[in-house]
TrEMBL record:
Pfam family, any one: PDH_C
Family: Belongs to the prephenate/arogenate dehydrogenase family.
Name listed for the protein in its UniProt record: Prephenate dehydrogenase
ACT domain location: 275-343
Listed pathway(s): Amino-acid biosynthesis; L-tyrosine biosynthesis; (4-hydroxyphenyl)pyruvate from prephenate (NAD(+) route): step 1/1
InterPro entries listed in its UniProt record: 6-PGluconate_DH-like_C_sf, ACT-like_dom_sf, ACT_dom, NAD(P)-bd_dom_sf, PDH_C, PDH_N, Preph/Arog_dehydrog, Prephen_DH
Catalysed conversion reaction: prephenate + NAD(+) = 3-(4-hydroxyphenyl)pyruvate + CO2 + NADH
Statement: the UniProt record of this protein carries the keyword Zinc: no
EC number: 1.3.1.12
Length: 343
């Protein structure tokens, strides 16, 4: 918001966090002269209703939104605290990081991402308009939903995936070092969010336990089936092995179908990019050099991934590009001395 020319006043119970955020250019730690247009409450879910009620009681802002990952609870709690539901609008940007605190913040975090708004018939239109303006300034895409429908949806697409990622990562805790050193890109993809803050996630899950338990129970059904199918694959009986293979194939094919529905960059259908894998050494400036060379070749990099080679000062950078641009990029990079790897 500050980058878009909006005056942002920062508040937090932890003064160190305000100082860090202000020094990163997120806003000012100075108190505003009077009520601001919009207060954006970005505190852990269990504190949202209390902070919104305080903002309203102290007259700090004309309107108030929150960004918590659950929406039904905060609205009900605000009513219980005697807050004003008219000047409050629950919202949730569907983008985040597995790290928290101001040092993990990035200015373009919400660009192209859905940002859920949960207005009710009583919501003040002025507050809704201010929220829409904020979302537009962040480059996000507004999505209007009922609060409880939102909570059921995020149980499926966010809260259960967090638990499953944590459960897979937990298998590594006491695993043998010889196994852990073999970790490749697959397990990195599946466990990135397992590094998230447990305190925050206990609060999120505690505010949405029923819908998450429903999705997890369905996953548990698939797990039972997969175990049965794998045991059958281990059998001496050919017919049982056939049934086991069909069971495993079924879950993998259903996975393909679900994955194909995950929207790509900017909410579009997932693009099919070609990957150009380039060997890089672990030296400062290598990535900048490769991006500059791709730019000089007139190729737009759609996505990027880095795979570190175990125990070596080197790795592969995978550049995802439009299929039509891949061969031009490959020859341009070879001409500039890069070693490419076939995938
Ligand atoms: N991190 C994500 O991926 C993500 C994405 C979307 C929404 N959210 C939601 O955003 C909110 C904040 O999460 P975050 O990841 O930015 O965490 P964070 O830890 O970076 O920020 C929360 C801040 O709230 C402060 N705080 C706690 N209680 C307070 C109070 N009573 N008054 C004022 N400040 C208080 C903390 O000191 C901390 O600086 C949560 O509700 C979370 O559900 C997070
Ligand atoms: O990608 C991450 O690291 C996230 O934290 C993302 C994610 C999500 O599940 O999409 C997690 C929780 C938030 O409520 C919103 C976004």
């Amino acid at each position: 918001m500050t980058a878009r020319g909006v005056r942002v006043h920062l508040r937090d119970t932890d003064p160190q966090r305000i100082r860090t955020a202000a020094s990163l250019g997120a806003g000012t730690d100075a108190e505003p002269d009077g009520p601001v247009d919009l207060a954006v409450v970005a505190v852990p879910p269990a504190h949202v209703a209390r902070v919104v009620a305080d903002v309203q009681r102290l007259g700090l802002a004309r309107g108030c939104i929150d960004v918590a990952s659950v929406k039904g609870g905060p609205r009900r709690e605000l009513r219980e605290l005697g807050g004003d539901p008219v000047a409050y609008l629950g919202s949730h940007p569907m983008s985040g990081r597995e790290q928290n605190g101001p040092l993990a913040a990035t200015a373009d975090l919400f660009e192209g991402r859905p940002w859920v708004l949960t207005p009710t018939p009583e919501t003040d239109t002025e507050v809704l308009n201010l929220a829409l303006e904020l979302i537009a300034l962040c480059g996000a895409v507004p999505v209007v939903m009922d609060a409880d429908a939102h909570d059921r949806a995020v149980a499926l697409v966010s809260h259960t995936p967090q638990l499953l990622s944590s459960m897979i990562a937990a298998r590594l805790e006491s695993a043998d070092e010889t196994a852990v050193r073999l970790c490749g890109q697959g397990i990195r993809d599946v466990t990135r969010i397992a590094a998230s803050d447990p305190d925050m996630w206990v609060e999120i899950l505690a505010a949405n336990p029923g819908p998450v338990a429903d999705v997890l129970a369905a996953v548990a059904g698939d797990l039972d089936e997969a175990v049965r199918a794998l045991r059958a694959l281990d059998s001496a009986d050919e017919e049982k092995r056939g049934g086991g293979a069909a069971g495993i194939e079924d879950v993998l094919r259903r996975g393909n179908a679900g994955r194909a529905r995950v929207p790509g960059k900017h909410g579009q259908a997932p693009a099919v990019y070609r990957t150009v894998a380039v060997l890089i050494s672990d030296r400062p400036g290598e990535l900048a050099r490769i991006f500059a060379d791709a730019g000089a070749a007139g190729v737009n990099i759609e996505d990027v991934r880095i795979e570190h080679a175990t125990g070596q000062q080197a790795g592969h950078v995978q550049l995802m590009v439009e299929p039509g641009a891949a061969s031009a990029l490959e020859s341009a990079l070879r001409d500039r001395g890069w070693s490419l790897r076939r995938l």
